[in-house]
Amino acid sequence: TKTERPITRTSELKISFEFFPPKSPDMEAQLWQTVEALQPYQPDFVSVTYGAGGTTREPTLSTVKRLIDDTPLATASHLTCVGATRDEVRAVVEEFEAAGVRHFVALRGDPQGGVGTRYAPHPGGYVNAADLVSGLRAMGDFEISVSAYPERHPESENDTVDLDMLKQKVDAGATRALTQFFFDNDVYERYMERVQAAGINIPIVPGIMPIQNLTQLKRFASMCGASIPSFLDARFEGSEGDAQARAAIAADLAAEQIADLSRRGVQEFHIYTMNRAPLTIATLDRLGVSPKAGRVSGAAA
Ligand code: FAD
């Protein structure tokens, strides 16, 4: 039987927000509006993804630089080692360090042929994310976060192999893991039991995905090994074509997931904002997390 713990006071919740670099002027405007709207929630940190979807280091660097220069937000940059030599990674790290980055989310990255193809390390590059973490450790005194997969990474043949990679990343110097999104909290709880049994003691911060679009999410989830429980379909049933109702359901779901995890003792959450503020705000609202006064944004200036 599970002991019911009291819900963590929302003032004790730590949150971080994930953004991606915009690919067009419209998306750029949307990102900075989002940053301005979310900034008063005073996240522990925000992070900007790297290299995914055909982008290079430049859009990540300029986004990170603007966050550091124009906002008070602690900003982490994601970094991948796919398709790059060690020297190339070092040059990128030096550039980001010069821009003020002190926190990296270190990732291997998807195979260059796309998800589902075979990953091959670049000759002269880092072999995997753990190797990249060691390299980063040697380059400077950075805070290093990594990925974790409660439903295991699609390339891992079993849970042991998957957890072993996480352990290697921690042994190499990672101090926090951010998870792939998941919707079944029992899956996370069982994962945490395995994590603890493996002697891994860093925070494994749940990645929370408020559902902007269930159809798109299903497509994406099938590529990254995350499952979509049938209760999600049931909750959205009957709301087809009603954007407002669907947004309310999505916010209810994300808030319920966070509240339930918080009852199970989790205090830190990483929210995939998809560069949009309303759903994240509606979620935080339902949890009683309110914006805090006293910080002035320069982000949208
Ligand atoms: P690793 O931790 O190195 O490996 C993941 C798993 O794959 C391990 O459990 C390991 O067991 C298994 N594995 C790895 N190599 C092999 C192998 N050769 N044979 C068998 N099993 C193997 N991608 C981006 O491009 N840019 C981003 O900014 C980005 N941000 C992310 C943020 C988070 C929080 C998460 C969860 C993922 C992110 N990704 C990003 C996706 C990530 O790059 C992919 O999932 C990639 O396929 C694995 O990278 P990793 O660092 O998680 O890999």
UniProtKB/TrEMBL annotation:
SUPFAM superfamilies the UniProt entry points to: FAD-linked oxidoreductase
GO biological process, one term: methionine biosynthetic process
Annotated EC: 1.5.1.54
EC primary class: oxidoreductase
Listed cofactors: FAD
Gene Ontology terms for molecular function: FAD binding; methylenetetrahydrofolate reductase (NADH) activity
GO cellular component: cytosol
Keyword Lipid metabolism: no
Matches recorded under InterPro entries: FAD-linked_oxidoreductase-like, Mehydrof_redctse-like, MTHF_reductase_bac
Catalytic activity: (6S)-5-methyl-5,6,7,8-tetrahydrofolate + NAD(+) = (6R)-5,10-methylene-5,6,7,8-tetrahydrofolate + NADH + H(+)
Alphabetically ordered keywords of this record: Amino-acid biosynthesis, FAD, Flavoprotein, Methionine biosynthesis, NAD, Oxidoreductase
Pathway per the UniProt entry: Amino-acid biosynthesis; L-methionine biosynthesis via de novo pathway; One-carbon metabolism; tetrahydrofolate interconversion
NCBIfam families on file: fadh2 (TIGR00676)
Family label: Belongs to the methylenetetrahydrofolate reductase family.
Protein name per the record: Methylenetetrahydrofolate reductase
Species: Rhizobium rosettiformans
